[in-house]
Amino acid sequence: LVIVPTQPAFERGLHYGMPAEKMEIIGMPVADRFCQPQGNRESLRNELEWPANKPTVLIVGGGEGMGPLESVVKAISNVGLDINLVVVSGRNKQLRLHLQSVEWNVPVKVYGFVRAMPKFMRAADVLITKAGPGTISEAFIAGLPLILYHRLLGQETGNVDYVVDNGAGVWAPEPERIATVLRNWLNDPVILKRFADASAHLARPQAARQIARRLVEFTK
């Protein structure tokens, strides 16, 4: 028995020589705090001191603040949407300070590395992020529609395909494309909900426990 995270390659039958009957696809394990109830969106926004009456767009650049975060924020800011932007720049202190110094056209809250990401995700309406597998899996659990704007060639390409092919989000590497997609989603709640529902459908919140359980069974 081989237990692997959910990966597009395996679902397409690319088993790298391993017989399919010896494989079990369970899902990518994520930290338990992402799998626990966080409260409703309104209460979380009040706790985080975010505007409760505006759609909230969460932009994440990974732990190191990778990707063209500034260009993405600028493009969205220039569209003129009535939204609240939350930007997580990770450990990139210079980028955080720069983004905080800019006068944007919409309310923007900029954070560095945060440990309250489960609450951030549950309080947001849309997630814009690089195509890291951990962040994507966490977003599925929060039922967040995804706009993917950056990927590491090779290892993260399949993550983009998986999100797009399953209707949970879109690939938009250009800042202007991100702003256009976001505007279309927020102007049509039916479309936004369709992406959100598809994202939630892909969630595997029990993956870590299921993997541990199967490993225990395997060793008996």
Characterise the protein shown here:
This protein is an alpha/beta fold and 220 residues long. The chain contains ten helices and eight strands. The strands form two sheets. Strands 5-4-3-6-7-8 form a six-stranded parallel beta sheet, sandwiched between helices. It starts with a strand and ends with a helix.
Mean pLDDT: 86
Beta-strand segment tally: 8
Q: Which of globular, elongated, flat, extended, rod-shaped describes the shape?
A: globular
**Strand arrangement in the largest pleated sheet:** 5-4-3-6-7-8
Instruction: Give the H and E element order.
Output: EHEHEHEHEHEHEHEHHH
- Count up the helices: 10
Beta-strand content estimate: 15-25%
N- to C-terminal separation?
13 Å
The structural class is: alpha/beta
The biggest sheet, with number of strands, parallel, antiparallel or mixed sense and barrel status, is: 6 strands, parallel
Q: Runs with pLDDT <50, length 5+?
A: 1-13
Using only C-alpha atoms, the radius of gyration works out to 18 Å
Question: What portion of residues is helical?
Answer: 40-55%
Q: Which structural traits does this protein have?
A:
220 residues; alpha/beta; two-stranded parallel sheet
Summarize the helices and strands and which ones pair or pack.
Blueprint: E1 2-4, H1 8-11, E2 23-25, H2 41-48, E3 56-60, H3 69-79, E4 84-88, H4 93-101, E5 108-111, H5 117-123, E6 126-130, H6 133-142, E7 146-150, H7 157-165, E8 169-171, H8 175-187, H9 189-201, H10 207-219
Parallel strand pairs: 1-2, 3-4, 3-6, 4-5, 6-7, 7-8
Helix pairs in contact: 2-5, 3-8, 6-9, 8-9
